[in-house]
Design goal:
Elements (H helix, E strand, L loop, with lengths): L3 E6 L2 H17 L2 E6 L10 H6 L7 E2 L7 H19 L3 E5 L3 H11 L4 E5 L11 H12 L2 E4 L2 H9 L7 E3 L3 H16 L2 H5 L6 E4 L4 H4 L2 H18 L2 E5 L2 H9 L8 E4 L4 H10 L2 E4 L2 H10 L3 E3 L7 H6 L2 E3 L4 H11 L15 H8 L5 H8 L1
Parallel strand pairs: 1-2, 1-4, 2-3, 4-5, 5-6, 6-7, 8-9, 8-11, 9-10, 11-12, 12-13
Helix pairs in contact: 1-7, 1-16, 1-17, 3-4, 4-5, 7-12, 10-15
The structure holds uridine-diphosphate-N-acetylglucosamine and uridine-5'-diphosphate.
Amino acid sequence: MTARIAFVLGTRPEIVKLAPLIRACEKAGIDYSVIHTGQHYSDRLDGVFFDNLELPQPDYNLGVGSGEHAEQTGEMLTGIGTALDAENPDTVLVQGDTNSALAGGIVASKLDAELGHVEAGLRSFDRDMPEEINRIVIDHVADRLFAPTEKSAAHLRNENIPDERIAVTGNTIVDAVQQNATLAERKSDVLDNLGLTDGEFALMTAHRPGNVDDKERFEGLLDGIAEYADKTGTEVVYPVHPRSEEQLREHDIDVPARIRCVEPLDFLDFLQLENTASVVFTDSGGVQEETCILGTPCVTIRDSTERPETLSVGSNTLADPTADSIIVSVFDVKSGDNDWNTPFGDGDAAGHILWALGFDSPEVGRVVRT
Ligand code: UD1
Ligand code: UDP
């Protein structure tokens, strides 16, 4: 088969979740190229993930960088258009719900190439989140929708997207965790480096504009987690996303002493902390999934989640940014035995997606699936 795939990506979670597909293309000899918008550019959000996941450097880096949504997305549209004209792929794949995925989706939907959306059909039903708008638009312009679960496929059908465009494939995050968790255990020195003991600390992330751009809410979230930490004698480690770092500075917020701020971590170090933390506090999409896969209880400090499967299996619970809500939520989510089933597939989402795209000769299938 000589068909050619172009991946469009731009941020940390897209690199993590497209890595299994890129690696599968490498193994199976499928011709592909990678167009990086440059939405994330700091080494700790970008370069370290290519290194960790042993990915080749992108064929294009558009260097778009940060900016207002309209400006950032507009610049991406032009750059992606030029790159896709040069590449002339048969299939363009975008993942998730970022501005990079939106821009890739809009450009590709007007070309002859088939547009595939990896992680289609997620809905928080909260249109104040830019990601919700991005997901809806991408799903409605895509030709092929790779839904991670039956629930996400049902959202697509409810929005009258034809069934023949939808395939339930699992989420490539399971592939990424399975491919890297043991490696992380073996290679990562993060516990020693941070002086932490397995099972005796909590991990947190917070980067959503809805949480960190609002001073009162960001302070409530930090104070609430610190109060939980005080009451239980738990140390909390917080790898701070650059957006949050900026907001801490701008709003002149003092992070409570119980919370230890560190630079964003590479994927192996972060996986190792997720795997050994007693509980994880987050507002991240990927972290809700990874904790569910790894068997670590998670408290999501948001009003809604587009990953309700994690609530159903009992790995995750939603909390308000207050001490009372956070403390009750931790005890609630930790009251089970952490042996829930992973609702995001069998760890071969990349193989299922490539098969659905027609890379189904026994030779390719065998290679993709090993
Ligand atoms: C973006 C995605 C979000 C995703 C997150 C993953 C959109 C609308 N949002 O949010 O869905 O969860 O990525 O982390 O696409 N910055 C740096 N270095 C970088 C990148 C950003 O310092 O490499 C700083 C800049 O000051 C920038 C801010 O972080 O203004 C926010 O970056 P941006 O890419 O706009 O959004 P994220 O919050 O990262
Ligand atoms: N992550 C990481 N280092 C960190 C924080 C997160 O490697 O310090 C990884 C995490 O394992 C997950 C991804 O980044 O795979 C999630 O990205 P993020 O939370 O930025 O975005 P979201 O998933 O919310 O879109």
